[in-house]
Design goal:
The protein is mainly α and 392 residues long.
Length: 392
């Protein structure tokens, strides 16, 4: 089954069913979509056309941008110490533990073991953000702490991959320059841009953000890097803009969660090869246990101090992985550092860490809405923007 329309139709129906199951089961739709992707990929053997790769990649960048836009800069400044400690240890402990397990227990060579350590050190900002938004915790102190800590973890992951493997090219200069320029300029254009082009049915605001993110993706690809971290910083830079224009933020979310993120999560599940995973089941169990144990040992004591009484919930969400874990494993496979079996095991572990900790956190440790209502770092904005005018 490989035609464009066939793949699109199957995934569209799968995304709809995943949304329905998410509501019925009370679990994040991201978890259901990943599992559905595994099932569809291994039963129907769908191809992965270029459009799906693009939409999945764009979806991960848009999710990260929205996550940054949800973080309150004031709350981030207040919690920088906790975020830095949790985020740093959340990277360092599983990186070292997984690397040593790959090298000495699984018998991988050092470069492959390093890829394994990097892939299993991550926390998925995309999964964390989706869960927090769906549960209404994104605007609470605990939600802000988890998102900012996740950012620190992913920053350390990217730095580790870059230092150990990526050889920078001259394209890194325009990539960094464009990232800095957009982060500095876009918030300063708010009054003029919204005054001139805002509140229209054609949504120039959303198109402008998409254009900026696609430019970052293009330059990141040229620089052998990735646009996820600049996208988070850009979202953080425009967070005050989103705070003042809640309706625009809501429409941005609708576009992302209705169209882009389902393809990202479904494709992530489709990359898992069940036969290869089954042949290496013991290794998969070992690496999954190593990552979850290392995350728990590193994060839980700090979470008890800084995220009380939601230490378990924080630890479980910090144990998730997806975007950067998959990116790291894919880089290792493309560069010939890991083979297909190693790649499949790593990706399956990454996907399982997106599913298992999230499901447990939501089912057994999710903060009750009444317990977090007084913990809002941003009060809901019920003001209305002017009604949409048609395009002039």
């Amino acid at each position: 089954m490989g035609s464009t329309l066939t793949v699109a139709a199957v995934l569209a129906v799968t995304a709809l069913l995943a949304a329905m199951f998410s509501v019925e089961l009370g679990l994040s739709v991201a978890v259901i979509e990943i599992v559905a992707g595994i099932v569809v990929g291994n039963t129907l053997h769908l191809s992965t056309p270029d459009w799906l790769v693009f939409l999945a990649g764009f979806g991960s960048v848009v999710l990260t941008f929205l996550a940054g836009a949800e973080v309150d800069p004031t709350a981030l400044r207040q919690s920088w110490k906790a975020s830095t400690l949790i985020g740093t240890l959340s990277f360092a402990a599983p990186f070292v533990a997984a690397m040593l397990a790959c090298r000495y227990l699984a018998g991988w060579d050092w470069p492959a073991a390093q890829i394994g350590g990097i892939a299993l050190s991550t926390t998925s900002l995309a999964v964390v953000y989706a869960v927090l938004v769906e549960s209404g915790l994104n605007a609470t102190r605990i939600g802000q702490l988890i998102m900012s800590s996740t950012f620190i973890t992913d920053l350390a992951t990217v730095l580790a991959l870059s230092v150990l493997f990526v050889r920078p090219t001259w394209w890194l200069v325009p990539f960094v320059a464009a990232s800095v320029a957009l982060i500095v300029v876009m918030p300063r254009l708010e009054r003029w841009f919204f005054g001139r082009y805002g509140s229209r049915v054609i949504e120039p605001e959303i198109k402008g953000a998409f254009a900026a993110l696609l430019v970052l993706m293009w330059l990141g690809d040229k620089a052998a890097s990735h646009a996820v971290l600049p996208a988070f910083l850009l979202g953080l830079a425009v967070s005050r803009t989103f705070e003042r224009h809640r309706i625009t933020q809501q429409r941005f979310r609708v576009v992302a969660f209705a169209l882009l993120t389902p393809f990202f999560f479904l494709k992530s599940g489709m990359t898992v090869s069940i036969p290869l995973v089954w042949a290496n089941l013991a290794l998969l169990g070992l690496l999954l246990a190593v990552k979850l144990a290392a995350k728990g040992v590193a994060v839980y004591p700090l979470a008890r101090r800084y995220a009380k009484p939601h230490a378990a919930f924080t630890t479980l969400l910090m144990s998730t992985g997806l975007t950067f874990g998959t990116i790291s494993a894919t880089y290792g496979y493309s560069a010939g550092i890991v083979d297909r079996a190693q790649f499949s095991v790593l990706v399956c572990v990454v996907v399982l860490t997106a599913v298992v900790p999230t499901a447990v956190a939501q089912r057994f440790f999710a903060p009750h809405p009444t317990a977090t209502a007084a913990d809002q770092v941003r009060q809901p904005d019920h003001t209305q923007e002017p009604p949409h005018r048609g395009p002039d």
